[in-house]
Amino acid sequence: MEIVGNRRFVEVPGDKVHELPPLLVRTEPDVKRLDRVVNLASNIVERDDMIPLTEDIIQDPGAGARKMDMAIQLVDQYLTFITHWQWGDSILEWIRQCEITFGARLELRNLLRSDLWPHAGRSSFVQLLEDKSIPTNGVVIEKAVGMRLTFRQPPPISCFSDQFLFFLHANVADTAYHTWADLSPDPVSSLPPERFSVHIFDMSRQ
User: What is the average pLDDT value for the chain, to the nearest integer?
Assistant: First the structure.
């Protein structure tokens, strides 16, 4: 076992660089009717009284534009959620493929055995992606996995309030990720990034 700072790394036999399954991800939010999403966001602005209907607001010719601006901001939050969810969904499937790969290779098979120490866990694959500095265009990998763990399928924007979208980004996804990561018995060690190669394929451009 190698220890770097406060990080423990599993020992991978030999000096071979192991190629892991490709990570297939959609980097653009898969939303078929953006105009419908905007209309739903406008309904949320109206429903949640995000701009109180005082007499001054009713008579203000710019009130409609402010409501539309708030709806667009809500849509931006929702599209960010969708993008994170798609990344999380792809990463969880990639981890499943990696586990199959480890199980099929003699030199990697024991690295995931929790009765041996040091050992890797499912969160070790997330850490590996972070250590490899894969390009995510602003997507936070742990948050993305937390989004996918929270929602099996991405719900429509009509299910959200603006407040819930805010808390979803700030707290809910983080709690879901760390609860999932803690399912692996401690101590969980990292996978040495120099011993593994990962290729990312953007399915949005296919």
Answer: 83
